[in-house]
Amino acid sequence: SQKIEQNSEALNIQEGKTATLTCNYTNYSPAYLQWYRQDPGRGPVFLLLIRENEKEKRKERLKVTFDTTLKQSLFHITASQPADSATYLCALDHHASGGSYIPTFGRGTSLIVHP
Amino acid sequence: EPEVTQTPSHQVTQMGQEVILRCVPISNHLYFYWYRQILGQKVEFLVSFYNNEISEKSEIFDDQFSVERPDGSNFTLKIRSTKLEDSAMYFCASSEFTGGISYEQYFGPGTRLTVT
To answer: Is-cis flag, bond preceding B8, omega within 30?
Structure first.
């Protein structure tokens, strides 16, 4: 069966350190992978999109890697700040029967950055 | 900065009643989506909409659900006869669409639907 797995346990780190979140998937052939941030009671906020033929993408303090052989994406936040505390969702965009893409979300990993 | 808006923020309804959730996508976006998130669960895709018709829908999007773009700005989700298990946060999203390439989606703040 198809699965997207993100660590269910919260990741606790100290301010200034690099946070690394993992997204593993099975039985998908995603064309794209996206990372979102979600704060409690709010809608997801888009952070980064990486295509299947890309290995790495960066945006300011954020970096995403995508390994289609390992079926894994890593999401890094460098120089983390307490304001980065949130739940981070990975979403796989896979080709659907209608010809376009459907995103399937993981359950997310909660990040807590301590001052 | 342009944003997706949704109304109402919270809707309480009785089982069996019809509800309409409303969304105003970002004005130059062409692709629209509805998702739901049951409390404590993951975000689930319901439907995508492009060029005035449904592009894709999930197994959750059964005959009790329908979507409509009644004018040039609004995008609605109707649930015909609500059930207790429809209680969830419903998110609308929109994205640019260019030649089949997936673009980032911009989500609204959500409507919390409570069915009693």
So the answer is: yes
